[in-house]
Amino acid sequence: MSCTSPVIVALDFSTVEDAINLAKQLDPTKCRVKIGKELFTVTGPKIVEELQKIGFEVFLDLKFHDIPNTTAMAVKVAASMGVWMVDIHCVGGLAMMQACRNVLDQMNSKTLLIGVTVLTSLGLEDLQQLSITKTPEQQVLSLAQLAAEARLDGLVSSAQEARALKLNFPQLKLVTPGIRPVGASKHDQQRIVTPAQAMLDGSDYLVIGRPITKAVNPPQALEDILISLQ
Ligand SMILES: O=C(O)c1cc(=O)[nH]c(=O)n1[C@@H]1O[C@H](COP(=O)(O)O)[C@@H](O)[C@H]1O
Q1: N or C: which end of the chain has fewer CB within 10 A?
Q2: Domain extent listing, the chain
Q3: Which amino acid positions bind substrate, per UniProt (predicted)?
Q4: What is the ipTM, given to two decimal places?
């Protein structure tokens, strides 16, 4: 059965056992799962297969960022594993994004190619430290312009930019981490939004990690979030 929920649960764990244990408490019709750098580095591709076997669509979040050929070949391998979504950093540039698009087109792949704009852990001062004089929203919008030109399927940004992105780039799917239910800890996130507000503002998918994975009762935490969206 395919998943219609907007929630993607970030399985940020350091062992296969912990990731599978959490995933098995969740229902693949109620969320998708995300494999990030920590989990993939320790497990390699077998975790993708294991999660697919128990019915989950997988977002392989390795945020590739390299020269065009290297990045496109990494995207090709990810797509050949049958992942639902893969991401690359937009700051890799237009040629890099186009190379990734082309490789997926040549494979007739259905894997969604998503460009990371400005990480949700970064605020205005962090951008200034990087010699970026734009606000986070301005920087997100200018990277989105390049991503649209490269015909990416969507973007990762904070939901704080969702409204402006949907207005200017309605064809792009918006994947928004930095989601925090009312009262939840921010942890290392800066540009945070509640689940319901993110959906109202135009997010298509909500990436949620610790508010679910570190909850006393993860399936209930997911359920509470889904109820808050109704
Ligand atoms: O690409 C991502 O998923 C991502 C991009 C971004 O800008 N910010 C961000 O937090 N993420 C990921 O989203 C997840 C957020 O986890 P929590 O902060 O625990 O909800 C982590 O796995 C991050 O790696």
Answers
A1: C
A2: 7-228
A3: 12, 34, 61-70, 120, 180, 189, 209-210
A4: 0.99
